[in-house]
Design brief:
The complex is a heterodimer. Chain A is α/β, with parallel strands linked by helices. Chain A contains twelve helices and nine strands. Helices cover 42% and strands 21% of the residues of chain A. Chain A is globular and about 50 Å long. The chains are: A alpha/beta, B alpha+beta. The structure holds adenosine-5'-diphosphate (ADP) and magnesium ion. Adenosine-5'-diphosphate (ADP) sits at the interface of chains A and B.
Chain lengths: 245, 418
């Protein structure tokens, strides 16, 4: 039963980017349940993005347990982890989320090119991926023809982030991860964006991990994780970080 | 596959720079293939210049020089062959036929060759092809001429037209035989050999005009040495003799006997041997050209490498995005590799079709200006190997950034490096 409800399960995890490099992550335990909206807060350089790389199966921990959607990622080969990510996780980055040479719609349907599962899910209610992309963009108020036909790098940052959100949501992945998606937006655009994200995650029945160092965004989230409390490697490293900066 | 679609779209996005790369590689392909095509055309027309002639005899000179003036009408004989020697050779039991050639005159820059009907009968080119007439007939007696196809085309001559022969070679000759115009009796079919660029007249008539000319009070003639006007008409000395032997096997001994035994210092050559010798001399030029175009290929490929490498850093972001949506490092590798393969193949295709386009365009000009017939045919093995080498080099060049981005994408994961 707990397998059913927990989306992320971590125990005694330890990670360094290279074998001899210093430990970036040391997490005793973390559990995130299905449907939760988690705000992950911590200063930059503290290893938040690194944790997301682990959740995505792009990097693997040196030790400890890491389960996503009940799947022990360490038990998968690299190809299987890449497929797992394609099938189950939607990503939004801080900025420059879009592939410059693809159109808006092509950018949105990109995950379906790598995951047949998401493609099938996306096609559940509509006839074509383009239609599904436009449906999602419409929800995000981005389906105007002047937006759809512009080269993506001519769009505003806010517009780009909403397109990135549509891409993260297409094919209803179980887990949506947003790595500082609002840090290049101004304050009211921020709240509007978070509202949209909440609504769409609800529609898609997705769990949301929202990473930021911006305290002002905490309010709407039902759960906040302080990264320095979660990651005991941070306190070890912090003197180092200060020394460097 | 989705990744190939991406590669093509990314390529389209950077049309201009990639277009330039494609062009520079395509140009190198044109150079390389073009040189190879011209070499083949040159070799084919060169080695098919004369066939069926077992020996060429001339006054003592270097074999190459003899070949050049007797067959290619390039340069002049330093000395002549006396009639006496000609008769001796002609009467030799091994000799099937002997074609006398007298080369000392020209018409508007085209060589005038004094010879006999035997030339038309026995001269062979390519794989034993005989001379044929396009219009009219071979000259008979009197002041008649048969002209090569190119002479006719360039000067717009028809049978029945009258031409005036000038003494000496070259475009502008001061001494002309105006009083003795020649009537064009016939025009030869195109052969792709120097025959196309010559005017053939009877040996007797050429002797005659020189005799008349010699009697004229025109002052000294610097080229008179080429025509030693003793005896009656048709008895003047010769520039060269083409020999057909009764048996090919006799060529070597016949050559030796002409070179060593005669009263006159003569040189006999086997045209095939000397043609090859001359061709090999030109082979060095071809090799130099090949090396130069090889360098052009290297430069073209380098420009591709540079473009791929400089775009690599900005594309690391793209790779992180692709990784985040589920792309494998292999996909990322294929994306860059696919692009270089695509660029290389496109460039080769472009260069290839441009070579053929150029050949279609330039073929008539090459033929008329240089007597170089470049046949338009399917690429042969050498050309295919050249193309494959270029393709292979392109792929190897593409491997460098591809492997690099593969490593990056493993190391970076989804971390976007700005
Ligand atoms: N791909 C990577 N390779 C090596 N080191 C990395 C990589 N990504 C991040 N790091 C290092 O890991 C540490 C944590 O960085 P990061 O996870 O990006 O922090 P945050 O997202 O909290 O700002 C930093 O010291 C950073 O230099
Ligand atoms: Mg980060």
């Amino acid at each position: 039963m707990p397998e059913e409800t927990s989306v992320i399960e971590i125990a005694d995890l330890r990670f360094a980017w290279k074998k001899e490099a210093q430990t970036v992550l040391k997490i005793a335990s973390l559990q995130v349940n299905r449907g939760e909206r988690v705000f992950l807060r911590g200063p930059s350089g503290s290893g938040k993005s690194t944790l997301l790389n682990l959740l995505a199966g792009v990097a693997t921990p040196q030790s400890g347990m890491l389960k996503v959607l009940g799947q022990e990622l360490n038990a998968l080969g690299s190809a299987q982890r890449d497929h797992f990510r394609a099938h189950h996780i939607g990503f939004i980055f801080q900025m420059f989320n879009l592939i410059p040479y693809l159109s808006v719609v092509e950018n949105v349907i990109l995950p379906c090119q790598f995951s047949s599962k998401r493609k099938h899910k996306a096609l559940a209610q509509v006839d074509s991926l383009e239609q599904e992309a436009i449906r999602l963009l419409d929800h995000l108020d981005m389906a105007h023809s002047d937006v759809l036909h512009k080269p993506v790098n001519e769009l505003s940052v806010g517009q780009q982030q909403r397109i990135a959100a549509a891409r993260a949501l297409i094919g209803a992945p179980e887990l949506v991860i947003a790595d500082e998606p609002t840090s290049s937006l101004d304050a009211d655009r921020c709240t509007a964006f978070i509202d949209l994200l909440f609504r769409e995650c609800d529609n898609a029945n997705a769990t949301l991990i929202f990473v930021s160092h911006d305290n002002s965004l905490v309010a709407p989230f039902e759960r906040t994780i302080e990264f320095h409390e979660l990651n005991s490697a941070v306190s070890d490293n912090l003197p180092m970080l200060h020394a460097v900066s | 596959m989705a990744i190939l679609g991406l590669a093509i779209k990314s390529f389209r996005n950077r049309k201009f720079t990639t277009g330039l790369t494609v062009l520079s590689i395509a140009l190198s392909v044109i150079l390389l293939l073009g040189i190879e095509k011209i070499r083949q055309g040159a070799e084919a027309s060169f080695t098919s210049t004369i066939s069926g002639t077992d020996l060429i005899v001339g006054a003592r000179s270097s074999p190459v020089q003899l070949l050049l003036y007797s067959v290619f009408h390039i340069g002049n004989p330093t000395n002549n062959i006396s009639r006496h020697s000609y008769e001796e050779i002609n009467d030799h039991p091994q000799v099937e036929w002997a074609i006398p050639l007298s080369l000392g005159d020209s018409h508007k820059g085209y060589r005038v060759v004094g010879t006999t009907a035997k030339f038309y009968q026995h001269y062979r080119f390519a794989r034993g092809q005989q001379l044929q007439l396009e219009q009219g007939q071979w000259f008979s007696s009197g002041y008649e001429a048969a002209i090569g196809a190119e002479v006719a085309a360039a000067l717009g001559y028809n049978p029945g037209d009258q031409i005036i022969i000038a003494h000496g070679s070259g475009d502008e000759s001061f001494i002309t035989h105006k009083d003795k115009p020649f009537r064009i009796a016939g025009i030869l079919k195109r052969t792709g050999t120097p025959v196309d660029r010559a005017v053939y007249v009877g040996l007797k008539s050429i002797d005659a005009i020189h005799q008349d000319f010699g009697g004229d009070a025109h002052g000294h003639d610097p080229l008179m040495a080429h025509h030693d006007h003793v005896g009656e008409s048709g008895q003047g000395s010769l520039s060269a003799i083409l020999l057909g032997l009764k048996s090919r096997g006799a060529a070597l001994s016949m050559q030796r006997s002409i070179n060593e035994d005669g009263h006159e210092p003569l040189t006999a050559i086997m045209p095939g041997v000397v043609l090859l010798e001359v061709w090999q001399m030109m082979g060095v030029v071809k090799q130099i050209l090949m090396v130069v175009s090889g360098f052009v290929v290297v430069v073209g490929l380098f420009s591709m490498l540079i473009i791929l490498m400089t775009s690599l850093n900005e594309r690391r972001r793209e790779m992180a995005i692709l990784r985040s949506v589920g792309a494998r490092p292999v996909h990322v590798f294929v994306l860059i590799m696919g692009e270089s393969v695509f660029l290389t193949l496109l460039a080769i295709g472009l260069g290839f079709s441009m070579v053929y386009g150029l050949m279609v365009l330039l073929q008539p000009w090459l033929e008329s200006a240089f007597g170089l017939y470049v046949p338009i045919n399917w690429p042969n093995t050498t050309e295919l190997i050249l193309l494959m080498i270029i393709a292979l080099c392109g792929f190897v060049v593409g491997l460098i950034p591809s492997i690099r981005i593969y490593r990056y994408s493993l190391a970076d994961g989804m971390t976007i490096k700005v």
